[in-house]
Amino acid sequence: MTGAFSSINWMLAPVLVPLAAATATFLLMGLRGRTRRMAQNAIGLAAAVGIAVSALALWAMVSGGGPVRYELGGWEAPLGINLYADGLSVFMLLTTAVVGAAGSVYTLGYFSGREGEDVRRREYFQDETGSFWPLWMFLWASMNGMFLAADAFNLYVTLEILGLSAAALIALGGTRMAFSAGMRYLMVSLLGSLAHLLGVALLYGSFGALDLATLGESASPIPPVWAALALISLGMALKTGLFPLHFWMPSAYTGAPSAASAMLAGLVGKASFYLLLRVWFDVFEGSVPPGAGQIFGVLGAVAIVWGAVMAMKQTRLKTLLAYSSVSQMGYLFLVFALVAGASPERGFEAWAGGIYLVLSHACAKAAMFMAAGVVIYSVGHDEIPRLHGIAQKLPLAVASFAVAGMTMMGLPTSGGFTAKWLLFSASLGTGQWWFGVVILLGGVLAAVYLLRFLNPALIQVRTAKVYRDAPRSMTVAAFGLSLFSLFLGLASAPMLDLLAVGGPFGGGS
Amino acid sequence: MGWSAMLPLLVILSSAIASFVIFFLDDDRLKLRQTIYLGGQVVKLVLVLVMLRGIYFEEDYELRVPILPGIDFLLRVNELSMLFLVLSAGLWLVTTVYSIGYLRGKPHRSRFFGFFGFSVSATAGIALSGNLFTFFIFYELLTLATYPLIVHRDTPEAMRIGRMYLVYTLSGGVVLLAGVVALQLTAGAVEFTPGGALTGNEAIGAVLAAIFFVLVAGFGVKNAFVPFHSWLPAAMVAPTPVSALLHGVAVVKAGAFGIVRVVHEIYGLDLAQTLGVLLPLTIIASVTIVYGSFMAMFQDELKKRLAYSTVSQVSYIALGISLFSLTGSVGGIVHLVHQGIMKVTLFLCAGAIAETLGIKHISKMGGVGRRMPWTMGAFALAALGMIGLPPMAGFISKWYLGLGAIEAGQPWVIAVLVTSTVLNAIYFLPILYSAFFGKPSEEVAEAPEPEGRFETDPLMLFPILTTAAITLLAGVFAGVEISPLGWSEIIAGRGTDYEPRN
User: Fold this and answer.
1) Contacts B182 to A, Cβ<8 Å
2) B32 - beta bridge partners?
3) How far apart are the C-alpha atoms of A297 and B493, rounded to whole Å?
4) Around B378, how many Cα atoms within 13 Å sit in the side-chain half-sphere?
5) What's the number of CA atoms in the CB half-sphere (13 Å) around residue B418?
6) Do A436 and A472 contact (CB within 8 A), yes or no?
7) What's the pLDDT tens digit per position in A289-339?
8) 0.95 cut: is pTM over it?
9) Is residue B166 packed enough to be buried (19+ CB in 10 Å), middle (13-18) or exposed (0-12)?
10) Surface of A (443-472) touching B: CB under 8 A
């Protein structure tokens, strides 16, 4: 290693920092009460800062000098562990850095409930064992590891850790519902990883390689490749929650403690989608059977409408948000249909549009779940019919919800606007206008289901009793993140430049 | 980036920042709020006047920021921008002064003024946009900024209408977005250019015509074309200053202004005529004009009648634009301003009457003219202008529209104008008659005597008199070069060999 700030260190930092923090906070679990909380909080926040700094440094590095590859321990591709960072990797690292930082701040207040408090609530707001921080840091490390992994096996390892820590976070809710939701998510997650592992095994059997770049060079349209692609796609569609494989999402997102729901809905589902993008566009770019993308596209289009319609029928805020996620995840899968047979320019539009939605939706949906958490913290429940006039009592929470909602509706200047503009442009440009119709329809439907909560919330009536004020860290994190999502649409130029680095479609030119 | 590039942005930000600060003030910080707010307005007006002078001497103001590949956020000022901008900045000041009187002692004033200012900022953005992409951004922001104003009363009824408003306008926005993207794909980056930006060679005629109709349909919701108009009368649930703003300059006008931009500065009159898209637009506008006037006759609620009147009158703009004649265009463009000042006057009067006497229905307006002569006088002036009586502003619009119809070889449009004028008279004159000569209604008889020197709150009365005076002046001095008419002739004549008539 040469120099403390060489590129190598910056590439390891996004994984090692949260891993170290996870270990440290894990060891601190032996302590009790306030001391433990303060120590864990300090370590967690420091890690969030460290991750943000390293992601920014990688951004500068990749924009300046193109994609970077690093061989861990000096072993070359077939044997050692390789790390690889291109524009997409850094983009995803930035996503987790932003949402993760806001989430970390949020948890400071979220878990401030004292033992023995009135617990007739949806959520306990306590972390008696101090296990939130270690789990969250493991989760973060696994996501960052996945974004930097250069081979299919490491993708599997990170995927597995991701699933385990996410399931544990859901179960941390402490209620019966949270526990069963956690168990169900664990099954789904294991099934998804298993499918991925089978696919990887098939590839290894055919080509004797696991390195993504090597696989990309040797892959050709032959049946084992198709089988591997089908297995991996199925597994990842399950973990991302593509209709009709979304069945686990409502219970998982609703049952989890809101601090965890925000991270799950915001980030975890996006990680498996990232894997899918890598496999489709970097590895098997030329060997995807024609029409395969259409299957994803059609399912995605159905998801957009189905999720929105189901969201309108929900009476609980968090379930509404979960179905909104079903709808928004549908947008991501349109990418696969839109790039088929597209010119490089339109192909890049579709691909970048999908990825931009990953970032925008991550920020916005996390902010909305955080806002829902504030409501539950203050009122004790999130049943929409009983939340009339709540905006008078919790103005900032409702404002966060509304501002973040602009991304769901695809309105300027939110990041969702940029993303949907790109996707829509690609759908018209490739002559697949029917997807365009669904893209636009989804935005209007989003307005309808968001108003299902916002309208009653804004009415001036005698409102439900507010037990206690939510800690400022919760409201500030939610509102800050929602504002961030609102202004993402104005920052799209540098972000798209970043995505073009080492991306498929030659960066759109 | 030079000073002249930042000026358009500053115009938008001056009102936006003042409004943003307002949100953090308690409702009873009256003085501070008014100082900040009016300060923002004065700054804005000064900037607008500086820019107006600059444009007159043919300076350029342009701010360009790349957002997406091949798509810029573009603010660029031309004569048409200024027409709309001056209207919005001026009416903002008038309606704000009025609102201070109107809302005296009512709750949530900080919220009200905050979103009111945001709406005006969005309108300024619409005026200054240099391409459809930027236009669309502000167009949608306007929808969001006006929603809290429409539901300001926070009743379940207001909420229901607010939802209807959002669904209508967001659907319109979605259609507009489709048109904007389609145009971007066919013709690349299209910027507003006097005389038209398209050459007609970008794609086959049918495609360009189809995009034209998608764009017009998108604007048509806010412009309240039949059958997309039902949100407008319903939106009367909003406080009166909001209605005035909505009808006079912000929402409805944004739709009309968009249509002007599309016809004149994207397609250009010649290309639009070649594509054959003008006549359908004339027909839609004519149907809306007659339908709106017809429906207005049956409304007893004053604000509802005014709302249907807006449905009708705003389509005069599209009508003028759609005539293949520059005279017609002048009539349409000038009506953008004339309709704004007349309709604001009418709404402000309606609000003053409702606040002072508690009268909201026309059937109870007997004798109002004797109790509130100044207010009703202003109302009469604006109403006669709407009917098109010389020398009021409305007459100028109708005169040019009629001339344009003949030039364009569409004499049947005259029949539309005449029908509408007759209907205007039928639904406005009885109000005037009963207000001045009718038997005083119970409400008027029981109304308390005015407390001060004036018949109503002076902060409400003076704005009314100001806009009424402008209605008269705009008509009398239409021949002056800097009148709305003179300015409209400059706008319509750009890029052509059109000679102003005076």
Assistant:
1) 428
2) none
3) 49
4) 27
5) 6
6) no
7) 778 889 999 999 999 999 999 999 999 999 999 999 999 999 999 999 998
8) no
9) buried
10) 443-444, 447-448, 451, 455-456, 458-460
CB A370 within 8 A of CB A258: yes
- At A423, list the tokens: 């996707």
CB B19 within 8 A of CB B116: yes
Q: How far is B116 from chain A (nearest CA, A)?
A: 17
The CA distance from A108 to A37, in Å, is: 9
Contact A406 B151 (CB under 8 A): no
The pLDDT tens digits of the residues spanning B430-448 come to 999 999 998 888 877 777 7
Q: How many Å lie between the alpha carbon of B64 and the closest alpha carbon of chain A?
A: 13
* Cβ-Cβ contacts under 8 Å for B285 (sequence gap 6 or more): B225, B315, B316, B318, B319, B322
CB B103 within 8 Å of CB B112 = yes
Going from N- to C-terminal start, the domains of chain A cover 290-501
Residue labelled with tokens 């301003």: B337
**Residue A466: DSSP 8-state:** P
Within A66-175, where are the H helices?
Answer: 87-110, 132-148, 152-171
Residues 6+ apart with CB under 8 A from B472: B381, B385, B391, B392, B393
Integer Cα distance of A229 and A402 in angstroms: 39
Q: Which residues of B touch A345 (CB under 8 A)?
A: 69
Cα angle vertex A287, ends A284, A289, to 5°? 120
User: Is B273 part of the contact surface with chain A (CB cutoff 8 Å)?
Assistant: no
- Predicted interface score ipTM higher than 0.90: no
Residues of chain B in contact with residue A508, where contact means CB-CB under 8 angstroms, are 69
Q: Chain B contacts of A447, Cβ < 8 Å?
A: 166-167, 170
* DSSP assignments along A161-200, one per residue: HHHHHHHHHHHTT-SHHHHHHHHHHHHHHHHHHHHHHHHH
